[in-house]
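We emphasize that the prediction below concerns an isolated chain of 472 residues; any contacts that depend on oligomerization or on bound cofactors are therefore not represented. The input was used exactly as deposited, without trimming of termini.
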Amino acid sequence: MSDQQDKKLWGGRFQEATDRDVESFSASEQFDRRLYRQDIQGSMAHARMLAAQGIISQEDARQICEGLQEIEQEIREGRFQWRPDLEDVHMNIEKTLSDRIGAAGKRLHTARSRNDQVATDVRIYCRDEIVAIDQHLLQMQKALLYQAENGIDILMPGFTHLQHAQPVLWAHHMLAYFEMFKRDRLRLRDCHARLNISPLGSAALAGTGFPVDRMATARELGFSGITANSLDAVSDRDFLIELLSALSIVMMHLSRLSEELIIWSTSEFSFVELPDGYCTGSSIMPQKKNPDVPELVRGKTGRVYGDLMAMLTIMKGLPLAYNRDMQEDKEALFDAVDTTRDSLKVMAGLVRHMKPLADNLRQAVYTGFITATDLADYLVTKGVPFREAHEIVGNVVARCLAMGKELHDLDLQELQDLHPAIQEDLLHLLTPEGSVNSRRCPGGTGPEPVRGALEQARRWISDYSLQEDERS
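Result of the prediction step, given as a token string:
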């Protein structure tokens, strides 16, 4: 047997060395080394449990934990020597430990497989990252609240089909995104609850014959319980797919916001001024101020979608239990987490520091026959059936187009010529302010419901807890 093969912790039955191309092709330590903290955390809990159960000695457990703590410090400080020939983060740490402390290190893997080991590591990693991303979502919500509170009196057009539809408050528009990110946080909490169960003790696929205490390791690692089926425990990646799905929705919301900010910052709209620190210029056109951050976020959304599709495709044809295909889950996971976290961070800063151009927004509200629905609703209050009122107002708009006028430009006599039911009390409703003020229903854009929504939003982010089973 070659010296190289002696280095493999699993190499006992092999007579030939691993082909160098295969070794390079199958190694994952270059990317899964970022799981080192979770791997060491799980290994220390496992060692202490083995000692408590009398499977290894307390002295062995002490040496293992001290050795692992030293390795963790070396990795953190960049002094650890990673070896691609040892395949992954787990083997690198275990082999180094065994080389340093001898027989005690070789007892660490008792009653454990890399299958339940990696499943445990990844669950801890996902749990940690959900908490971190939730905090970035909180900052995003706070930025939107800041904009809503400081722009509570700003009117702007609301759109459907990217055409002027009805006037709304700037604060109402900002709070629409607040609600999106609220749902994102709730989705991540649900995902957190489902993944926070421990697979450790499932071993390769059938459990272990050693008298392990799975609940002890679960408690020490902060899990809420243990997996019910060892086959499922080592082969399950539903929690990754669910997390990537939730992150894809976060990115979709960021992309929608990005799209609006890109449009609003154009000369044609001039609704917002994006902060200089979040834009770049042109190498040839000195006048340019390009919305790079929202454009990049819009583009990076496709990357996270791709990560989700990669995970779904990896898992779609795998028989029980573990298969090496599942090694490919890490890069998709890491990329989606990093991309979403970074996108939230920069977008929260951009939203916080952007400036709504109130005069331009207000001017835009006075175009596009934006109070046509208010005129139709008014006729309904005078006894006109809505479909008839709809047709009447459509004819009014056509006439205004021919005359080059807006609805609010019509005087009372012109309006009464259109329908005898119209009275002077309509004139105020045909102004954007009157239209907005009339939307008093809960969830509407009127000043009272919007101020109430702001207070509810402040209260929600103050009371919300990632772990608590509360209702939004």
